[in-house]
Every structure is written in structure tokens, then in C-alpha cells.
Amino acid sequence: MTIPARAMGEAIDRVDGPDKVRGLARYAFEHPVDRPAYLYPVQSTVARGRVIGIDCRQASSIPGVLLVLNQYNAPRTNIPAGQGELNILQSDRVAFRNQFVAGVIAETSEIARHAASLVRVDYQEEPHDVELGGDRDDFRVPTSIAPQFPVEVNKGDVDAALESAPVRLDRIYLTPRQYHNAMEPHTTIALWSDEGLALYVSTQGVSRIHDVVAGLFGLEPARVRVISPNVGGAFGSKAHANPDIVLTLLAARMVPNRPVKFALTRQQMFSQAGYRPPTVQRIQLGAERDGRILALSHSSTSPTSKLEEYAEHSTRPTSTIYAAPNLRTRQRVASLDIPTPCIMRAPGDCPGMFAIECAMDELAVECGLDPIELRVRNEPEVHPGTGLPFSSRNLIGCLREGAERFGWEARDPRPRSRNEFGWLVGTGVAAATYPALRYAGSVATIRADPDGRYTVLIAAADLGTGTWTALAQVAADALGVPLSSVDLRIGDTAYQWATLAGGSSGIASWGTAICEAAGQLRDRLGRGGSVPRQGVEVTARAPENPYANQYATHSFGAQFAEVRVNADTGEVRVPRLLGVFAAGRIVNPKTARSQLLGGMTMGLSMALHEEGVLDSRFGHVVNQDLAAYHVSCNADVGEVEVCFLEEDDPYVNPMGVKGVGELGIVGTAAAIANAVYHATGARIRELPIRLDTLLAW
Amino acid sequence: MDVEISLRVDGTEHRLLVDTRTSLLDALRERLGNTSPKKGCDHGQCGACTVLLDGRRVNSCLALAVAHQGAQVITAAGLATDGALHPMQESFIRHDAFQCGYCTPGQIVSAVGMLEEAAAGWPSAVTPEFASSNTSADGGSGVLVEDEIRERMSGNLCRCAAYANIVPAIREVTAR
């Protein structure tokens, strides 16, 4: 059962809006502190090797320099298993180019930066290995990716089914390195004093940072406090503790009682803040002539670092999206001398659905079918991977609603059939899906006061996702009180432990804890009971989902794109995007629409602009700023329309929400690539789609 | 080397000591504690640090503070007067023209500066060549067409990608 909605479903303005439009909302670097010291890092100039000497004399002689931190004087840390990237200044090893090898602490940021340029580091360089060529012999199956999803799926006899299928397709799709590039760089202020450690940090989860930091330095958990009320975008890169946090802590340890401030530069973010690794994906499809899929095989290969394993799980959506009696997915990784990749908006599903949905478009052409009809014919009755029923699934509804809104019926399916004054016009469609996740462990406290106010405390995060607003709406309905009587407090480990804002799981995970606490509070107060003078406080942990093993829980959507390709220059414009989504209950249609619209636009950016270019001679990404790594700007974006289908799902969580942070980016790039094919006849299987590729076609 | 300069920021006069290497952005943020202009790239590539400097929108990360002795600076915090939000700020909230809010003060200052440029008849890259200077931006109607807004606001990146909300938010203000 889901709780009745009164505040939920209301399209109310962001409560943090008035502060944010004036620039008064505090982000990590902006918290006022006394006598801050500033940190600036020194980064390795080799991709692999050993630091054999550090000469700090010149840097140390600059007035205002407090200390040059390096492997010889840095405090020792405990490195948790599987988090080798945090192992900085602990040994002489260099594991990738631009890894931190020293840092300067100074009175001002200008002094720190200048002095850092004077630190001389000598290396014993070793040959490095940074490119994922197909001729390697060290590809391996990742040890595990996300515990709730199998690394690989095998169903039926794929090879035999492919062999005998009347229609066959075998294609390779490539996606490049992509960088989150949140507008707020990764920033930290650390103050180490007799009272313990206080950290202001830009993060998707203060509780996780708290636990990692306490472990690294062997601190009593109660002596560490992490604060992060506002986060200037994250998209996965701020999910985990990154080396910049560790470097700030090492520095703060060395200058006790002085707050140390450290903000990565935009350029440093390209080596320190994770990225979506490039993928090489192979899709093999076997189908009947009427389009029904007989076999589907999907393999994906991506690089990881030698410090940690991260595999881009591009084959995760493959076992969810279409009925395939014979199904096979394969994941491979190889370890290189590069920084560790990490989750980025719709990890796995985003690049994976690019490949699958382009392949489906190719199959539609092969079968002479409308691409929407092809998808309808392959709609599964149960989850193809697990055999579980879906808790709710309305992909067909999204496709049909979108077709009507977009004017799909009038489409002439022949490529190059519309030429408007030198612009080739085409339209494309793709499906979207993302798991409806709910992470265990969040705890909420609710305090009721006799003046009728309810204070809700939980260490949740707002990355721009609208948590400050939407979670208060959830709390109001869980308590059965007006929204105006709820005070929400988040982003601080002074409140109860919370899971991180990731996997579009935030509202589902934190809201479940709040519903549990609210239920206990209401029981405590009894029917119509008044709040005693001293108030009442209840703390409760989110219970497990009793339906967890009975249903497959996923959100779905349909992406439509119109593109115009200049016949002479190959320039691609996207005047129109439409997304129709079935994602459970929508807590705040205003902020949810923005999340989906933002995801779709990031998908446009992925389709046409984004690519980190590695220089294999040196092992770094050369276009490491916002001038050379293009993200969509205002003039790149046209109309973006978002539409929700009503969906009542009693099996996901007490609110009936499925999460909308990632669904919007899934499928968008495929819809655009398919529209480019329709406009031009050019089937581009490598992102980003560039004008030189189109001209050469 | 430190130099004392004076700046008038959001209507308040300040005397402050800056390093000759200090950007106007760092002077505002780190010396004066004005968190309204944001540091997104420090290279003039993202626009998050946009302020009005003597009436014109600039990337404050590309300006050295010491070169702007006596300048008048308006940040998004200073656009709100007597506690009331500027119409552009209200419109951004109503249209949900931001998510994380980090690029937002820069977007809003940029939008306010941009409308003055358009009103003064400054053309943009998408202004038709045949238009006269008075009507180049708005066709004489007083309302900027969407493509003009998109072009003129393209120096302000938004990674949450609220562009499709930013354009109508600005357009609504121009329509008044």
C-alpha cells in the first residue's frame, strides 16, 4: 500500500529557490571559517613509476607557505579494501598521470598555487599502458558490479538461435570517456581540532564520507562531522570519497586548528573526480521476419585502473527491456595505468541503451517495421532475465503517448525523405529504462513539538535534485500534516545515517525511513492525541522491502528526437526532444520534470558533444576544460518536452516512487542517432556524432 | 605583492587588500565573503562567476581585482533590493530554471546584463543582418525571440541543463 498523497503530487516551487537565485545558499567552499589556509596539489607528470625525490626548498622559501606535504611527511592512513585511489602520499608509487604526489599549504590560494609550481619532483618512469586496444589478452570478467544485479546473464542457446534466425544483425557500438563536470568543482574544507574533525564537503552522501574518513584516520565516529547542505551538481562523481578529500585531510592533520580549503580546478577534475569509461559494445540480434526477437547477445568492454575495479555495466538493461527467449550478456574489463572510472548518471544503462536502442532501430529497418511497432512486438510478459513479474511497466504506454504527442504517424520512414532548404530533417525514437532502487539502512528522526511543528532529521542530500522540497512533501504526507508544519533538516551527519543520493534511490530510500518514523510517531501519539509539553521524538530505520524478491522494479520511458542535419556542413541541430515517462508516483512534478529535462539534455550533449580524448603518449586527457570538453550550452538546446504517465505501484516503497534522476538520460542519445539515420541515411555507431563523420558518409 | 583597493559591491563600499594575482572573483568570494558569484572553471569558460562590472556583464574570474580599483560591482545578491527579489530571480524560481543552483546567480546576472545589451541594439550572432540597430534583437516588439536568448545566454553553462526552463524564464521578464 502507498500512503495517501496530499502534498505529494503538488508542483510547488523549490524551497531553496530564494537563497539560490541570490547566491546565498552555502556550498562546501563557502562556509565561513576563521583564518583558512589554502591547499594546492602537485600532480605527477608520469603515468607510471616511482617518485624518487621531492625538492621542496624553493617552494618552502616563499613567504606565506605553511608546509609542503609529501610522501615523506604525510600522516599515515588506513586504506579500505578496494579503495586504492585514496592511497595518496603513502608510498612512492605513481599509478596514473596527474595523481597527487604533493601539496602546498599556504596563507592564500595565490601563494599555494605559485609555490606548488616550484616543487620539483623526480621520477623513475616506467612504461605505461593506457589504451584499451582489442588485441589485449588481459580482459577479465569483473569480480562484481552491483550486488543486486548479475554480472552476466545466460538464457537458452543464443548461438543456435542466432544461427537459424531469418533476420540477423551483428554490430559494434562505441561510446567515449565522459566527464560529469558538475558546475561546482569538488571542494572541501577540513578543520582538525581538539574537538575532532569537521568537514564541509560537496558530496552525494555525508554519511558515507563520514564512515570512510573515520576509517582512514582511525577516528572515533562521534568525533567526525560532515556537513553538506547544498551540492552544486554531482551526477555520480561525488558519490564516493575522492583523493581531493584525503589530501585536504592530510593537510588539515598537519596544521591543527586551521581550516584547510581545497577546491579542485576544472582541469584537475579530469583526473581526480572519476568519469564514465569508454565502452566497446557488440550487439547480436536474431529475429523472425515479423520482428520478434529470437536471440539477443550483448557484450561490453571497458577499462578500469590498476588501483580499483569499476566496470561500466552496459549490459544491465539488456535483460530487462525486451522479450528474448535466448539471451546472453558479457562484461569485460582490463586494468590500465589510468584514474579509476566511476558511476556517472545512469551508469551502465546509459551507454548500454545507446547500443541496444540503435540496434533495435537497425532491426526495424531490416524487418521493414515501424520502430515503435517493433518494440511493441517484443514487449515481455515477465522480466526476461529473472522471470519475475514487473511491479509495474508501461513502456508501450510511453511509446504510444509519445507517438501521438510527437506526431509520429505522419512520418515517412524512408531516410533522406525531408530536405528543408538544405537541412535534412529526421525523427527517431528510443526506449528508456532504469531500475527502481531502494538502498537499505537509512534512519530518520522525527520530532513533534506542542506548537504543531514537526522536525524531520536525516543525513540526506540535495544535489539539485529537489530533496529539500520533495522529501518535505513526503514527510508531510507520512505524518498527515500540512507541508507548512514540516521542518526538514538534511546534509549533516549530526542527523541520522542515510544512504547516498545515487541510483535515483534518494526519495525511495530516505522516504521509506521517514514513513516508518512517521508511522511510529503517529502510533505513539495515538488517535487525536496531543503532543506533550516536552515534545515527542521517534527514530526509525527503513524496513526492508517485503516485495523485494517478488517483483522486478523498473521505470520506463520513450524518447523522441527531431534532428536537422545541414546537407553541406554536416552540422546537427536538435530542435525538439520529447520524453514520456512512467516512473511511479511523481512527488513534485515541477522538480521531477526538471530532473528529466536535464537528463534528456545531458543525453543530447552525450550524443553530439562529449568526448574525453586520451593522449596515449602521456596518459592524460588533453581536452581537460570546458572550452575543449564540450557540454551542451543554451544555443545547442531547443524545445524539450517532458510528459508523465500516471502509475500506481504499491510494491516499490510506501510512496510508490521509482526515481527520476537518471531515467531521462537513458535512450536520448539513441533517439538522436536514430533520427540522424532517418535524416541522412548515415548509421553512426560511435559517439559523439560529429559533422566530419557525417560528411565522410 | 599586496595592494589596497576599493570596490563598491552591491551598493556597499569596501577597502580591501589584494594580492596582485587575485582575480576579482576571488576578491569577492575569499576576501569579502560574497558567495554570489561562483567559481566553476576559473577560465571564463562557464559563466558561473558573472557579475555586472560598471554596468556590463563580465566573467569576474578573468578580471584581476587590482585592475579594477574603484569599480562598481553588482552580484546576484545585489539585484535583490530591500529584501524583494528581482523580477528575473522570481521568474527563475517560477519556471524552475535551475536545479543545483550553482550556475544560477551567474545566469541571472547575465540575463539582466544581456537584456540591457539587447535593448541598446547590440546584435548577436543570430541577429538578422538586415535588421536595423533598434530592432535587431527584438524585432521592435520588446520581446526577445527565443533564439536570441539562447545565443546571448550561451556563455553561461548549466550542467543540470535547465536551458529549456531558463529561456522561458527570461522571455517572461522581457515580455513585461
The gross shape of chain B turns out to be globular
How much helicity do the residues of chain A have?
10-25%
| Side-by-side strand order of the widest sheet of chain A | 3-5-1-12-9-10-11
Discrete helix count of chain A:
16
- Compute the number of helices of chain B: 6
Spatial sequence of strands, sheet with the most strands of chain B: 2-1-5-3-4
Radius of gyration of chain A: 26 Å
- Report Rg of chain B: 16 Å
Structural class per helix/strand content of chain B? Answer: alpha+beta
* Mean of pLDDT of chain A: 97
Helix content of chain B: 25-40%
Structure description:
The complex is a heterodimer of chains A (697) and B (176). By secondary structure, chain A is of the alpha+beta class. A 7-stranded mixed sheet of chain A has the order 3-5-1-12-9-10-11. A 5-stranded mixed sheet of chain A has the order 7-15-14-13-8, sandwiched between helices. Chain A has a 5-stranded mixed sheet with strand order 16-17-22-23-26, with helices on both faces. In chain A, a hairpin with a 5-residue loop joins strand 18 and strand 19 (454-457). Chain B is of the alpha+beta class. Chain B has 6 helices and 5 strands; from the N terminus they run E-E-H-E-E-E-H-H-H-H-H. Chain B has helices at residues 24-31, 76-79, 87-94, 104-119, 146-152, 163-174; strands at 2-9, 12-19, 50-53, 56-59, 72-74. A 5-stranded mixed sheet of chain B has the order 2-1-5-3-4, sandwiched between helices. In chain B, helix 3 (87-94) crosses helix 6 (163-174). The chains are: A alpha+beta (697), B alpha+beta (176). At the A-B interface, helix 1, helix 3 and helix 14 of A face helix 1, helix 2, helix 3, helix 4 and helix 5 of B.
Write the layout of secondary structure elements.
The complex is a heterodimer of chains A (697) and B (176).
Chain A (H helix, E strand, L loop, with lengths): L16 H6 L14 E7 L5 E7 L1 H4 L4 E6 L22 E2 L5 E7 L2 H8 L3 E6 L28 E2 L2 H7 L2 E9 L11 E7 L2 E6 L4 H11 L7 E4 L15 H12 L5 E4 L2 H7 L6 E9 L5 E13 L12 H4 L4 E11 L12 H19 L3 H7 L17 H12 L12 E2 L2 E13 L7 E6 L5 E4 L9 H13 L6 E4 L16 H20 L10 E6 L12 E13 L5 E11 L6 H20 L5 E2 L4 E2 L17 E6 L23 H13 L10 H6 L1
Parallel strand pairs in A: 1-12, 10-11, 14-15, 19-20, 23-26
Antiparallel strand pairs in A: 1-5, 2-4, 2-6, 3-5, 7-15, 8-13, 9-10, 9-12, 13-14, 16-17, 17-22, 18-19, 18-21, 22-23, 24-25
Helix pairs in contact in A: 9-15, 12-13, 14-15
Chain B lengths: L1 E8 L2 E8 L4 H8 L18 E4 L2 E4 L12 E3 L1 H4 L7 H8 L9 H16 L26 H7 L10 H12 L2
Parallel strand pairs in B: 1-5
Antiparallel strand pairs in B: 1-2, 3-4, 3-5
Helix pairs in contact in B: 3-6
